[in-house]
Amino acid sequence: MKRLALLLFLITALMLAACGGGDEAPADTSAPTTAPQPAATEQADAPAAASTNTPVPPTDTPVVEEADEPLAQLGNLDNLKSYRARTQYQGEGAREDGTPVNDVVTVESAYVNDAGVDKRYMSMQLESLDAEEIDGFQGFEFYQIGTDMYMYGGEETGWVRISGEQSPFQDPSSEFLLDSSVIFTDLDSLNRERPDEKIAGIDSRHYTFDERAMLNFLNAGTGNVSAEGEVWIAKDGDFVTKYIVNVTVDSGGAGMLDPTLANGTLRLEFELTEANEDVTIDLPEEAISGTNMAGFGGEPLPLPEGATVTASTSQFAIVQTDLPVEEAQQFYDDALQGLGWTMDDAGSMSFGDMVSLAYTKDNAKLTVLIQADESTGTTQVMINAEESQ
Q1: What is the pLDDT of residues 9-34, one digit of tens each?
Q2: Hey, what's the torsion of the CAs at 315, 320, 326, 327, to 10 degrees?
Q3: Is 203:235 a contact under the CB 8 Å cutoff?
Q4: What sign does the dihedral 42-47-53-57 (CA atoms) show?
């Protein structure tokens, strides 16, 4: 799954690549083709009047193009109140060990700020990957409502709720993919093209480029990677509204885009499809019901003050709390018994900094494992629920 994980990481981040655009028609500065004629004046014994025809200026007077301010940096999604976008990644070639590469990943993404709450959606479909690596996997759906993050991984995985800090939309390690100013590392290498265009209704300047514009991103300094492409950038806001990148790898990988590709080609396309329009993102009811833990009758899992749910499904949850192990144990013992759960003394035990508690309620069983997490300095609580039919 190493290669799959790389692709998921790549495409998840690229969905939030900066977007924007513009189009501006050049002003018509052509001069009139015929000058006005002065009125004739009669004078006695005057020499013959000079011709009143004035020279006609040429009709192909060049249009004066609008001068562009140099691009200092690129903007990001903060320029938009809402958007929908589509990204597609295609890779073909081979790894160092000869493993063939034939990958196609398509992502639809959306964003809206709804009454001050950031809402994001992303669907990711894998159209072509090695069968042994995906094992029937077809794709993901992600929803982020404020700090709440939900993921649907198909019928077998179901819905999973994770903390906002673990969201692919917020992953610090993918920051370089969320900011197009990092992808296009040399804006001076962008070549201005005309005419301008509208992308998703946004006036966008058109540029072409080669690997020099993406030198650091592709790690192309060795000369083993070449690239060419086009990018459209919003006139108002300098954010990317569309780009097309074609990369050829002779050896050594394609930097941040795919460091494991020994040789082959990569194509990356992004296009903003809606901007500042009426975008609606609503969390499906099954996302909430599918992550409510069994045995709690749809009520939320008890949490110590300040605790974070790292991940949860209908049968499993991981919670992090600053409470010491003994205090976390006391909290859950009091909270669960207050909700009608009965401790199973025979199934409970403690050893060192780890405590395992067992509870029953009606037709449900609950196991609570509490232990110190030395890597974070917090206490980790793992809860497993089983509900018989």
Answers
A1: 444 434 433 333 333 434 444 444 44
A2: -100
A3: yes
A4: negative
How far apart are the C-alpha atoms of 242 and 268, rounded to whole Å? 11
Q: Give the span between the Cα atoms of 246 and 251, in whole angstroms.
A: 16
Reading the block at residue 216, the tokens are 């650091």
What pTM value is reported for the model?
A: 0.71
Looking from the CA of 104 toward its CB, the CA atoms found within 13 Å total: 2
Judged against a pLDDT cut of 60, whether residue 116 lies above it is answered with yes
- Amino acid letter, 37: Q
pLDDT tens column, 311-326:
888 899 999 999 999 9
Q: How far is CA 149 from CA 119, 145, 310, 313, 344, in A?
A: 10, 7, 10, 12, 33
| Residue 323 and residue 379 in contact, taking contact as beta carbons nearer than 8 Å | yes
Q: In a 10 Å sphere around its CB, with 0-12 CB exposed, 13-18 middle and 19+ buried, how is residue 183 labelled? A: buried
In the chain, the DSSP E strands lie at: 82-95, 100-114, 117-128, 139-145, 148-152, 159-163, 191-199, 202-210, 225-234, 240-249, 261-275, 308-312, 316-321, 342-343, 349-351, 354-361, 364-373, 378-387
**E-assigned strands of 276-333?**
308-312, 316-321
Residue whose C-alpha is closest to residue 202's, from 114, 273, 286: 273
Tokens encoding 162: 């994770």
Distance between CA atoms of residues 273 and 198, nearest Å: 11
From the number of C-beta atoms within 10 Å of its C-beta (0-12, 13-18, 19+), residue 74 rates as buried
Q: Are 293 and 299 in contact (CB under 8 A)?
A: no
The conformation of residue 300, written as its DSSP 8-state character, comes to P
DSSP-assigned beta bridge partners for residue 107: 87, 124
Q: What is the DSSP letter of 346?
A: G
φ/ψ of 189, rounded to 5, equals -85, -5
- Report yes or no: 311 and 318 within 8 Å, Cβ to Cβ: yes
Report the pLDDT averaged over residues 201-205.
95
